[in-house]
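Risk register update: the risk of archive-format incompatibility is retired. Evidence:
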Amino acid sequence: MSKPLAGLKVLDLSRFIAGPHCTTVLGDLGADVVKVERPTLGDDTRAFQPEMNGASLYYLMFNRNKRGMTLDFRNPEAQVLLRRLAAEADVLVENFRPGTMERMGCSWEELHTINPRLIMARISGYGQTTSMASQPCFDGIAQATSGLMDLTGSPDGSPMQAGTFVVDYSTALYSCIGILAALQERHKTGKGRMVDVSLMSSAVSLLMTAIPEYVSLGAIRTRAGNRDRYTAPSNTFRAQDGAWVHVMAGADQPFKRFAEMIGKPGLLQDPRFSTLAARMQNVEATEALVAEWISNVPADEAVQALNRADLPSAKVSTIKDVVENPYMREAGNIIDVDHPSLGLIAMSGPVIKMGSERQQVSPAPRLGEHTDEVLADWLDLHPDEVETLRTSRAV
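Archived output:
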């Protein structure tokens, strides 16, 4: 079965997570993604720990379903070659510091002139044209500057970074959405456009109601731990055996089922607990009801009882628990990718399922593995021409 983006040519000049994850999603959906790296050293993330037989798991995770080639962007011949590749591409994705592409003679205006159908996704820290465009920015910086870090962690603790690169991942997905929107527009107009996505915009979009709460109500939202900000009870509680269980019984009907489950239907007549608004006003007392019940029940037994009452709940899993959970492989959330020199590598699988067929996943490319192949496919270069480029160290 043909994948939905089959035939789409994507030139991937990006590094780290936001750009590579964006192009990985496009590759999962069938696009021909060509990952362009520096000769000799390659992407910086090839040196990131942890390693498996000398290969970075970080790089392998974010660069599957791509072909790889090398190009020395400092070489004028390579810059000419880059423009030729852009002329053949449907999509170009880059996340250099703003101004870098311009210095290589590959600004949006220049590339749009060369290839009016090109969609150019530009991922940056603060946007391409803002007063902070030249400032360095990574996921942690975006979490700190956006206020997201101040919303994360224990109420009596310090600001905390999320346990994963949530801003990078969300930026990658926003970039995909922008690219797909531009493709749809191109069907109608025949012309591509620039897609400008920043880590800071992505981070601010994750702040829930914190901005209007402050501007309109003067309320400053800060850390709440695992407590839900809008319903109660909804938090993480320690069970009898020491394991943690996350329970969500905050809205009125779920709380009614919870009260009946623990044998205390009369709680609904208590003015402290009778409505959601009352429970939010008495959140500590509300959560104490759950804490008391669950502290006398082993975690697995508690989850079973909550499930029977149709209440969302889960035992907090370690990564070991996740990997050993049979559902994860059944659903394709964890897959094995067969690498020619490393063997099977377990990683998270494609998120978007198109129909019932399992998607085929190819391993991340070795450095420069497909240089000759891509130059022949995209530019129809003869092997002798490629060898000349190698001699000049353009590739």
